[in-house]
Amino acid sequence: MVTRAVPQRPRLSRLPGSTALWPTHGAGSFCAAAPGQAPAGTIGDELAANPLLRIDDEDTFIRALRAGFGSFPPYFLRLRDVNRRPALLGELALPQPLDPETAQSLVTQGAWLVDARPIHEWARAHPQGAVSIELRPAFASWLGWVIPFGAPIVLLVDDADRAEAVRLARRTGYDRVLGWINGGIDAWTAANLPTRCTEETDAPGACRRIASGAALVDVRQTAELTKARIPDAVHIELGDIIAGRTPDANEAVVFCGHGERSATAASLLERRRIKVVNLVGGIGAWEAARLPIHQ
To answer: Per the confidence metrics, is the pTM higher than 0.85?
Structure first.
């Protein structure tokens, strides 16, 4: 008969409760299982709030831990080689200011146009075909998810945020940032280049769209569905939309946790000629409107 050793209390949990604990990844990292928002904490915080530390059985612990992981960006598969042979910043070509016509020409030749402005500015007006990835701490990860690794990039970004956008892109090995549209969306519009706007809606407006036949599409990760979900919403994770999945409808109302990921989804679906509306505030706005929800 095979017997298993009785699990011992994890070594970390035997440390004093005041012991500082510094996570290896920041909030929003796809390397972590259900990461929190705090940059640091203590062993005591984890003992009080982390359910994994209350599991005594090894197999149960492994299942619970793995259930917290979501899917991950494809650039992860490239980073090991990138980190073994990192580029020196001094050897990288500096991004350049680009007039709108030059930027358009680069996009025609295969560059990706990334609109890093706040999502509401993107919705009001953006270059046709631009992908919305709002500049925020998760910008690097979503850039690595949406844009093919090694592809050239042209940015549409506010002047004050330009250096940060380039820095975050290079953090994940996206070193071919060719430049930015000089003069922003105003210069693009003045050059009579094609633009689009994307409709935004609140929760009651989303209900009216759905009643008229639009599909309600939840682009959050699968692990998020266990916390709250909207009845009858179609779940197509943003990663799957990036990979080519498309809702079976002529019109889609897309939502996520707050609105940034669904804006990215909307920009990708627009490129596929699907009429799309972004639910501002995401599932939180739906809950605040006291509309039906499963928890």
So the answer is: no
Residue 293 lies in a domain: no
256 in active site: yes
- Clarify whether residues 170 and 272 are in a common domain: no
Catalytic annotation, pick one of 31, 197, 207, 256: 256
The burial of 112, by beta-carbon neighbours within 10 Å (0-12 exposed, 13-18 middle, 19 or more buried), is given as buried
Q: Where are the alpha helices (DSSP H) in the chain?
A: 43-49, 58-67, 76-84, 100-108, 119-124, 139-146, 162-171, 184-190, 203-211, 238-242, 260-271, 282-288
Last-in-domain residue among 155, 172, 196? 196
Per-residue model confidence as pLDDT tens digits over 224-267: 998 899 999 999 999 999 999 999 999 999 999 999 999 999 99
The answer to whether the Cα torsion of 198, 202, 208, 209 is positive or negative is positive
